[in-house]
Amino acid sequence: MIAIPNDVALNLIIFFLATFLGIELVRHVSRLLHTPLMALTNAISSVSIVAALIVLSDPKNDLVLLLVTVAIALVFTNIVSGFLITERILRLFRKRKDKK
Amino acid sequence: MSQLFEYLYVIAIAFFAISIRGLSEVRTSRYGNWLAAAGMTVAIGATLTAYAIQRIDLLVIAVVVGAIVGAPIALRVPMTAVPQRTAVSHAFGSLAVALIGTAEYYQRLPGIDVYTMTVLTAEMILGYLTFMGSCIAFAKLQGLIPGKPFVYGGRNFVSLSVLGVAIILGIYLIANPTQSFILPIMAVFAILFGLLLVMAIGGADMPTVIAILNSYAGMSAAALGFVLNNQVLIVAGALDGSSGFILALIMSKAMNRSFTNVLFGGVGAVVAAPVAGSATAAGRTAAAYTVDDVATILDNARSVVFVPGYGMAVAQAQHVVKEIADMLEAKGIDVKYGIHPVAGRMPGHMNVLLAEAQVPYDQLWEMDRINPLFPETDVVIVVGANDVTNPAARTRPDSPLFGMPILNVDKAKTVVFVKRSMSPGFAGVENELFYLPNTMMVFGDAKKVLADLVASLKKQ
User: Fold this and answer.
1) In terms of C-beta density within 10 A (0-12 exposed, 13-18 middle, 19 or more buried), how is residue B134 classed?
2) Interval B149-164 mean pLDDT
3) Residue A91's closest chain B neighbor by CA?
4) pTM for this one?
5) Considering chain B, what is the average pLDDT of its residues?
6) Averaged over B431-441, what is the pLDDT?
7) Taking the domains of chain A in order of start, what are their residue ranges?
8) How many CA atoms lie within 13 A of B85 on its CB side?
9) Annotated catalytic residue: which of B387, B398, B410, B445?
10) Across the beta sheet with B379-383, what order do the strands follow?
11) Structural contact between residues B117 and B227, judged by C-beta atoms closer than 8 angstroms
12) Is B387 tagged catalytic?
């Protein structure tokens, strides 16, 4: 038998619940905002930087160090540009000014 | 016992979920974005307090590079190029996740168990193929390579064989984790599959493709969370993955096509072109009009609907559209915009461009809401859209477009169709609309035609 760590079932539950939550949340997102939605969720998934930071706390060799450093640069680019461009796009949407 | 940083992760997760909720309304959307940014800060801060970083120098360099590259991208990119920016961010995100997975493999090398190795392998294949797929999507959107699908006989067999090789190598690696020379070869095959996959997809299918790549990038991040037993990553990845999935579903539904058809159908290729068009074109002529004719029609109109498409983005015509709308509104004419879900090159593309031109968002009407209004609309002005207005989708079962939900502009009293030439749309099908008696064709570059229209309206 393959040894499967105890956390896997728990993590699967978390994964499925988060997927259903995501589907429900996105269903209710205004159709006007699908472009910023994509920018925002992309920025959110950049939380993978956390994984890189954990590896960086105890890198085994230089190859690992190199891979993780490049990954952090890439993912931090996404964090910065993701939130900034979402803000920039959302600021464009405005209500009709009351006329007359 | 859970540690402090794990509780902080809970806060980050809550912030991420609530932030997407914020996008349900324009009014709360910006708070949503800030909340997500706060969640990110909490997650990073919590990790830094819990783990002592060994090489702060490298971290600082990486972060500075990221900020220097990221900020100008976000602040300078014109709104017409947002689809390209999105493709780049998918490429960066998925490559980063693939690299972290690779690093994790080397980190754990000798004593790596089968479960971890399986998830890691799946994660790396998905990550590397999404990376290359997104790069090709970027190149197509940016016009670096032709947007036309690259198709040849047996291409699906070749693509799937390449993926098959990557998977077989992956299985071998799972069985023999210490054979690390396999990993780069596997990565190359995954990358090659990503390349072949997106090369075969045409420009107008990009909204679906971008959404699918979005979903893949999220899924690979979630897979990494499984390897590391890190729940923030699982939740964030699942949110991103499901969001991309839903968007892809909406897009393919709006084209009446399945995912498989988008990914492997090669629509828009020369092969798809024949029959339907040639028969209808025979013996019929489309009537060409001048902008002065249009101005006269508009002068008597009481309601006008603009239907924008990718051509408006290419011509950067959104500002002049708004200028015309302002002139019409000043005359007391009701102005709306009818937005098809797949208009443009990514979900919501047209909304962003029109918002940039300061069109108030309550004038942007989605397909299901605007369609019942067309019979009472005096003038529809189609700018840069084509297939999404083709009545053949409703009336001609032999048309490749048949069954696709369209904007029923043909039901309006008059349709003004601004177009460069009579060339067919992406699907290679001629637009029946051109030959209808209530259609006025105005030929020329969208921006130029509309600027002339502004001048003509001013004369009146």
Assistant:
1) buried
2) 86
3) B30
4) 0.89
5) 88
6) 87
7) 31-92
8) 32
9) B387
10) B364-366, B334-339, B303-308, B379-383, B414-419, B439-443
11) no
12) yes
